[in-house]
Amino acid sequence: MRLRDLGEFGLIARIARAASRAGVAGSRDVVLGIGDDAAILRPRAGEDVVVTTDALVEGAHFTWPTQDARTLGRRALLVNLSDLSAMGARPIGCTIALAAPPSLEADRALGLLRGVIDVAREAACPLVGGNVARATETSITVTALGAVRRGRALRRDAARPGDRILVTGQLGVAALAVARARRGRARVKRLPPLRLGAGRALAALPGRGACIDVSDGLLADLGHLLEASGVGASIDVRALPLARGFAPACARLGVDPLALALAGGEDYELLFTLRGRTPARGLAGRLGAPVTEIGRIEARRGLRLLGLSPEQERGLVRIRAAGGWRHF
Amino acid sequence: MRLRDLGEFGLIARIARAASRAGVAGSRDVVLGIGDDAAILRPRAGEDVVVTTDALVEGAHFTWPTQDARTLGRRALLVNLSDLSAMGARPIGCTIALAAPPSLEADRALGLLRGVIDVAREAACPLVGGNVARATETSITVTALGAVRRGRALRRDAARPGDRILVTGQLGVAALAVARARRGRARVKRLPPLRLGAGRALAALPGRGACIDVSDGLLADLGHLLEASGVGASIDVRALPLARGFAPACARLGVDPLALALAGGEDYELLFTLRGRTPARGLAGRLGAPVTEIGRIEARRGLRLLGLSPEQERGLVRIRAAGGWRHF
Q1: Spatial distance between the Cα atoms of B48 and B29, rounded to a whole number of angstroms
Q2: Theoretical Cys-Cys bridge with B228: which of A43, B41, B156, B254, CB 3.0 to 4.6 Å?
Q3: pLDDT tens digits, residue range B22-69?
Q4: Chain A closest CA to B240's CA: distance in Å?
């Protein structure tokens, strides 16, 4: 069956039914979900609302021959939830705008939606609305809404000189998966982790500073954080959290481990700063995720990398020249 | 200049600057706008938040040779604001997800954004975030957020037998503009009206019933309202609000005026029900828009059209057969 056979209202009805069956059509934050001109959400008293939008487009972010529809749907919501995590918010709802060719296999469209619903359930993020449209290529645009205690949202512009710089999880993992896929050894890209709990715990910490999710690579995203905060930083590359066996795996693929860790992108870990005496050790427990201290915020602008070997210095010139991920 | 020369961050910087210059980068509802992982909004105490998403896709909703970019941008936000109007909400922010080919003239992308910003200013709806992505065709997906006094949002499912049915403005105007454009007599489609004030006034009325915006045509959207409310209705076609000279204009173009008024679509007027003694006459003043009573909600399911001439009866068969606008 093709999408055109299912029709717009048929597809919407299937989405609504699937969301309902999965228990993600509503929550105590949702007054009215799918089916009206707009959804109605009711954040708790004293909460701010955060909102973010992200799109996955065929040709730019995926191609059908190598993309499992359900995994794509999972990714579409996960990248948005990563933004909510980086704000320290809990999800209260999401909308999806699906554009697809009428000739698309209905199973692909429904698989995509199932993937969204999988993550919606895991993250307790109700699916409250959306849009479907005809297009020549498939794309899914997700808007996620979150709530966070008034004034407690994590921001990029809150880093101060003296703050320690930390990161959850490991870096370069997604880039390594992509490098592997390019060699034909794997098909599916690594999915972003759910760091909602870590973000919320961080937002509640008295010593919290700035926070951003690492989507474009550590260098690029730390750069955004430093620019927003008007500060600089030193990062000790020897402290970067790398997966066990990361360097040998990179060597086998002929890729530079430091390049992957610094500029690889799509790790969707939380990069944040902390001040005061909050011990880094107990943090992993409070955040429910591995946490590694990798550097320090400084008043002097610019980013300084410490602990580089001469070979790494040379590799870094190549990273800079490459300029990271570009959307156009 | 092409979009690829402007680049992702170049485009985002231009959007942020343009929004700031136009005074739509923030408001008292916006704690943090464009530039972080997510925007932070702060609705007033005791307000619900409503959210809606709508997309315009090249090929499906417009084609570049006949579409002025700025008008397209205006339309993209206006169709979303129509949904907020139909909920009785005031806008508190919007995000835009733009997908476009790297080869798109930068002026088209910027024109599109200028159109969004035009309407954002007119409607006091801050532009708080978004996304840009590479695609083979241009599309713009807007998510609009609104706020409305707790429990006062207008819904589709609130019509009760005995309610009077009313509509703002005039019907068939957009469809007539499309018919004219097809004959090459005009280029630009009629833009949706701003009915935010009418929606908010309606939400505050004690006798308010259900409400929906007329985007797919009166028959289709009244159908949605009746289904959601579990009721039926009678509509007097002689009462339908038509523009002066509507019938002769239709005759000149060889189109059926009743078909345009009932199934034309894209009028984006508010269709709503009222109970009690609220006088229809004073309503126009309170809503700041023309208001016409066109029928009555009844317990018996189905939609009955009254006042049809024999010729109109025959035309109606054709309307039903056509089945209205389909998105796939």
Answers
A1: 13
A2: B156
A3: 999 999 999 999 999 999 999 999 999 999 999 999 999 999 987 899
A4: 23
Any residues with CB less than 8 A from the CB of A278 and at least 6 apart, and which? A205, A206, A207
d(CA B117, CA B68) in angstroms, rounded, equals 15
To the question of pTM greater than 0.90 for the whole model, the response is yes
Number of H helices, E strands in chain A: 11, 12
Q: Residue B72 to residues A53, A310, B24, B47, B108: CA-CA distances in angstroms?
A: 20, 54, 18, 31, 10
* Minimal CA separation from A276 to chain B, in Å: 24
* Tokens found for residue A31: 């007054």
> What is residue A45's DSSP assignment?
T
Write down the residue that tokens 């083979």 correspond to. B136
Which tokens in the block code for residue B49? Answer: 């938040």
Name the residue facing A129 among B48, B52, B55 (closest C-beta). B52
Q: What are A69-97's pLDDT values in tens digits? A: 999 999 999 999 999 999 999 999 999 99
Chain B residues in contact with A144 by the CB 8 A cut-off are 38
Q: ipTM strictly over 0.85?
A: yes
Domain architecture of chain B: domains with CATH: 3-149 (3.30.1330.10), 156-322 (3.90.650.10)
- The candidate with the shortest Cα–Cα distance to B267, out of B109, B39, B136, B78, is B78
Q: Which of B4, B14, B30, B37 to mutate to test the interface with A (most CBs of A within 10 A)?
A: B37
